[in-house]
Design goal:
The protein is an alpha+beta fold and about 375 residues long. It is about 20% helix and about 30% strand. The strands form three sheets. Strands 3-1-2-4-9-8-7-6-5 form a nine-stranded mixed beta sheet, with helices on one face. β5 and β6 form a beta hairpin. α1 crosses α2 and α7 packs across α8. The radius of gyration is 21 Å and the shape is globular.
Length: about 375
């Protein structure tokens, strides 16, 4: 038995990994943002949010009792079949049984014992990732973090946030910053924001699976090959600036192409970009108009939660305790509303000429 302590900014999870249980792919995926260290009994001074007991796979292991009533649910439902995770769930004697129907992975949640038993089917490493991410995000929110729908580019101990609705161009702008101005990828979909005791706000990245539109993939040398797109591929009409028709991009070679920020950093926000990319001859970056409260409202519109949405209740291990943190969430968005911010329209091509010096820095970095 191997015991690991996973940690994301004071949210600890313990993993008890039985011989024969394969979790290397899941740990590799999470390693950009969570630390994992082998622990010994009684070594840790913090109670974990949960202990995940990962068993070697057996098709009968962790199945609900015979005759248990099961309901069809989703861990995640996406426009992309790749990211959709259907499952069956049963509640028996205070335990919550869940089976991912694509892979055969199973979870059994025991709230009273603070334990989740896990067995992973073939190709089920992302099921474990989904479990870890859900538990961590919900605990983070319950303890005062705000989760912004934003990518984040890291450089020199600061980040640039790129926030907006789905399809706004957040990933495109993030990769432009990395490709041309020497940034690293801190976060590709969500950014976790923490209020420090002195009232300042810092940003932490979040592990995600790159999901990019064809226009973005085709823009950068080598990315089509990583995404498995042949030269003969023809995108459907209207998909160039659409959230429809995106591609799941293998995260490991993606990280080699677009390097990640150091693991575990939490840093101040230097600037915020609000893109709405689309057809046009030129990319235009202009200061965000309106007062500070209007800026705060724009940011609040992009705050999201693991507790919200049609499929957010796929398990009931953690209660929703966000109400106790409402004042802190408001303060976080109010602080960020004072950060220099710009809107970005047009095709999303960033150069030293059209990018604010605060973001571009002294010189464009050639790749």
């Amino acid at each position: 038995m191997t015991t690991l302590r996973l940690d994301f900014h004071s949210t600890p999870l313990d993993l008890e990994v039985a011989p024969g249980a394969e979790i290397g792919d899941a740990l590799a995926f999470l390693a950009t943002h969570l630390t994992a260290e082998e622990t010994k009994p009684d070594e840790s001074d913090r109670e974990p949010v949960a202990t995940l007991r990962v068993h070697a796979y057996d098709p009968e292991r962790l199945a609900p009792p015979a005759g248990a009533v099961q309901e069809d649910i989703y861990l995640r439902k996406s426009a992309s079949e790749f990211f959709t995770v259907p499952a069956r769930r049963a509640l028996v004697d205070g335990l919550e049984y869940l089976e991912c129907t694509k892979t055969g992975s199973r979870f059994v949640f025991d709230r009273a014992a603070r334990v989740v038993d896990v067995t992973l089917g073939a190709g089920g490493h992302m099921d474990l990732v989904e479990l870890v991410r859900d538990l961590v995000l919900k605990h983070q929110e319950n303890t005062g973090a705000a989760v912004l729908h934003a990518t984040a580019a890291y450089r020199d101990g600061e980040v640039v946030l790129v926030t907006g609705a789905k399809g706004a161009g957040k990933s495109t702008v993030l990769l432009e910053l990395v490709e041309h101005f020497g940034y690293q990828v801190l976060s590709g979909d969500k950014t976790v924001l923490h209020e420090l005791p002195d009232g300042s706000v810092v940003a932490a990245g979040w592990p995600d699976y790159p999901h990019l539109g064809y226009g973005t993939v085709a823009k950068y040398p080598g990315l089509k090959e990583i995404a498995g797109i042949g030269d003969d591929y023809e995108p459907a009409a209207g998909h160039a600036f659409s959230p429809v028709g995106k591609f799941a991009v293998d995260p490991l070679p993606f990280r080699d192409r677009f390097p990640s920020a150091p693991v575990g950093v939490r840093v101040p926000v230097a600037a915020i970009l609000h893109p709405a990319i689309g057809p046009g001859a030129d990319t235009v970056v202009e200061p965000l108009t309106g007062g500070r409260e209007e800026h705060a409202q724009v940011l609040r519109a992009n705050v999201e939660s693991a507790f919200d949405g049609a499929n957010s209740g796929w398990h009931h291990y953690l209660d929703d305790e966000r109400a106790a943190q409402a004042a802190r969430l408001t303060r976080i968005t109010e602080v960020l509303a004072g950060v220099p911010a710009w809107t970005l329209t047009g095709p999303g091509d960033l150069t030293a000429a059209n990018t604010p010096p605060l973001i571009s820095g002294p010189a464009e970095v050639a790749r």
